[in-house]
Amino acid sequence: MTFKFRAKPTKTQEHWLFSELRHQKQLQNYMLQMRNQMWDYGHISVSMYDQINHLKDLRAATSHYSDHPQDMQVSTIKRVNAAHEHFQRRCREGTEKKGYPRYKSSVCSLSWSLRKHKLKTGERVRQNPIRETGTRHNRLKVPKLGEVKIRQHRPIVGDPKEVTLKKTARGWYVFIVCEVPDTLKCVPKSACGVDVGTHDFLTTSDGEKIPNPRFYRQAERKLVKLHRDLSRKTYQSKRWYKAKDALAKQADIVACQRLDFLAKTTYKLFHHRGFDAVVAEKLKPSNMVKNRHLAKSISDASWGMFFDWCHWVAKRDGKHFHQVPPHQTSQTCSECCQKSAIKLKLSERVFHCQFCGLKLDRDHNAALNILHRAACALRGEVWDTILCETRNQLLQLACWG
Ligand SMILES: [Zn+2]
């Protein structure tokens, strides 16, 4: 579980943090270069421990390395190790492009792991990185820098393991990763099917609709203006940097609004509506955005992130989240399971069944189908679309005959 708080370093602290970011960038590129050269020389893999030992020698030899916190340097080496292991896997498998890990022109985050300390009782615990002050702002302990002001708006839960300080367009943020024990899964008593769309953000199988806020569309005019301002400035001039910051801030605002909406919607489904299980379609937004007429709306709706949030909240609170195959959910009748003979266009918002005469909102019908499909999967049955399709074909033949 990760907790995110706003950090407020002073001017001097910020200066130190920027110099630290530059140092970590240099170290990362140096360690990556070492690995790449050895790999090109004869597919020799340098291990993470070799590099940590090399770092120890460097720290003993020169103050250029020993002036900086060792924990942050080790985290950087771990990051390089993860990137290179993925690269080696791609080389071994040969199924995709191998893609060398890239050298960075800048890094924007500093991470460090929290070490375990032995108590007098013999128990080994990690030190809490936050010092409580009893005032509006608590303090975050940063190695070699001291204490940085943070706005801790809620208490952290679990055992803190790793801390990351990140610079974004709107300031500094701290992320604290905590280890929490797994929550037991509840026995599902109520379930809900969810159909996501661009018209309404989602429709539940009870017929409830949550409108799509369209944050990007709302801010689009502002963003277009800021892009235009940036393009009219001389590249890398003072005004260019100023315009670039303004644009990044606006983009960050849109991203935050979206995240806030998704988190609240997910919480609403599981807790306010009290559903123990939520079922959605297994969509692939990355493929769907290839449709250039809908790309912007699909990206703005951010379904992928919504599914991720459902997954995390269900895992955290002991609820259930499932995804079912999406084919033909909006073209099939939820009452008689027959597939519509005429393809329903995206502009047609009402589903009308030719077989049983059911008239229902298009998305509500799809949400019911999703729920049925999950219920079938739970019983170990395969949903009978194919069966219905054959039946429809036979019926049509009978009609024409
Ligand atoms: Zn029907």
Provide a descriptive summary of the structure in words.
There is one protein chain. The chain has 401 residues and is an alpha+beta fold. Helix content is 46%, strand content 20%. It has eleven helices and 16 strands. The chain has helices at 11-42, 48-61, 63-66, 70-93, 215-231, 238-272, 285-288, 295-301, 303-317, 362-378, 385-400, and strands at 2-8, 109-113, 116-118, 124-126, 130-131, 138-142, 146-151, 159-168, 171-179, 191-196, 200-204, 209-211, 277-281, 320-324, 350-352, 359-361. The strands form four sheets. Strands 2-8-9-1-7-6-5 form a seven-stranded antiparallel sheet. It has a five-stranded mixed sheet with strand order 12-11-10-13-14, with helices on both faces. A two-stranded antiparallel sheet has the order 3-4. The model is unreliable at 389-401 (pLDDT under 50). The protein binds zinc ion (ZN). Zinc ion binds next to loops.
